[in-house]
Amino acid sequence: MTDALPGGQSAAGQRVAAGPTQLVLPFVPYIAISVVHVAFIVLGNPLAGPTKLLLMPLLAVGILWAAAGIRPWPGRALSLLLLGVLFSWLGDGSSTFFPMFEDEVPMMLACFGIAHVCYVLLMWRGRGLARGGFPKWALGYVAAYVLLIALLVPHTGDLTIPVVFYGALLVATAAFAARCGGVIAWGGFWFLASDAILSFRIFTPDAMPDWTSGAVMLTYTLGQGLIAAGVVRALASRAAAPASSG
After folding, report:
1. Which of 153, 243, 170 is nearest to 204 (CA)?
2. What does 30-91 look like in DSSP terms, one character per residue?
3. Which SS3 state, helix, strand or coil, does residue 107 take?
4. What confidence tier does 125 reach under pLDDT thresholds 50, 70, 90?
5. What pLDDT does 127 receive?
6. DSSP-derived 3-state class of residue 127
7. What are phi and psi of 9, to 5 degrees?
8. 202, 152 Cβ separation under 8 angstroms
9. Which residue in 102, 105, 68, 110 sits closest to 232, CA to CA?
10. How confident is the model at residue 180 (pLDDT cuts 50, 70, 90)?
11. Are 228 and 59 within 8 A, CB to CB?
């Protein structure tokens, strides 16, 4: 006995075809805390710190909720996605989770570097995610990388090598996301934008106005959310395809 519905479409296929509502609903708590967190940053509220640590756990909940009905269960792809979210969370709270280090930046780079490795592997090896080769416009990410490194290296000091490697992983995530099209591609773009702003805030703080602190988290939460939602939608579509084509 299968979960096929009239017309030969599976329950997963019907959920995808029914529109974005079922996909968006699981991410509403994440969206809400993202808005609250960014607002707290803008207002200088001390709750900005604690709400930051709620972001990735709620994103993980949204991923699992949205993907709960997908059959067959895409365990490998979801594992990579959730690992990326986990290490992003550790990077978000590097000063909290690694208090033994005086400077939080190295551990933040390490954790987010691992997160980007997970995302790249997911978008590279995840069946049903990529829609083709790299689009020509993705070459802009290479130019962005060269420009960012050229501007940052004079200020990075002992962290020059980690910054160079991290920048390459960040751009790789954006480039591989571009292969996936639509929602995931925009997620990679906003993630790159967020880290670019953050890099200048870390290494050239005097040149960055206060409002860029809120911009970092606005683009970051948008990028992470779009990547997560886009991957889940693609996995659901992949699961529905055999039943739809049959």
Report:
1. 153
2. HHHHHHHHHHHHHHT-TTHHHHHHHHHHHHHHHHHHHHTT-SS--HHHHHHHHHHHHHHHHH
3. helix
4. confident
5. 84
6. coil
7. -100, 140
8. no
9. 68
10. very high
11. yes
4 bridge partner residues:
10
Q: 10 Å Cβ neighbour count for 153? A: 15
Which amino acid, residue 178? A
CA distance 53 to 103: 19
3-state helix vs strand vs coil in the chain, percent to 5:
80, 0, 20
| Residue 122: closest CA among 52, 68, 164, 173 | 173
Lowest model confidence (mean pLDDT) among 135-139, 158-162, 235-239: 235-239
pLDDT at 32 over 90: yes
84, two tokens: 């990326």
Q: Is 71 helix (H, G, I), strand (E, B) or coil?
A: coil
Distances (CA, A) of 51 to 41, 125, 179, 232: 10, 33, 32, 24
Indicate whether 4 pLDDT > 50: no
pTM of the model: 0.89
Do 89 and 228 touch, CB atoms closer than 8 A?
no
Q: Which of 38, 96, 30 is nearest to 213 (CA)?
A: 38
Mean pLDDT, residues 68-75 taken together: 92
What type of residue is 29? Answer: P
Q: Find the distance separating the first CA and the last CA of the chain, reported in whole Å.
A: 16
CA triplet 99, 157, 223: central angle to 5 degrees? 65
10 strand-pairing partners: 4
**Residue 141 to residue 96: CA distance in whole angstroms:** 32
Contacts of 189 (CB under 8 A, 6+ apart): 174, 177, 223
In 3D space, the residue among 187, 181, 233, 238 whose CA is nearest the CA of residue 84 turns out to be: 187
